[in-house]
Amino acid sequence: MNRNRRKYQIFSSIFSNAYFLSFLKFFPCPYLNCYACPLASFACPIGTIQHFAIIRSIPFLTIGILGMVGVLVGRMTCGWLCPFGFLQDLLARIPVPKLGIPDGLTYFRFLVLIFLVILIPLWVGEPWFSKLCPMGALQA
Question: Which of 2, 26, 48, 76 has most Cβ atoms within 10 angstroms of its Cβ?
Answer without folding.
Answer: 48
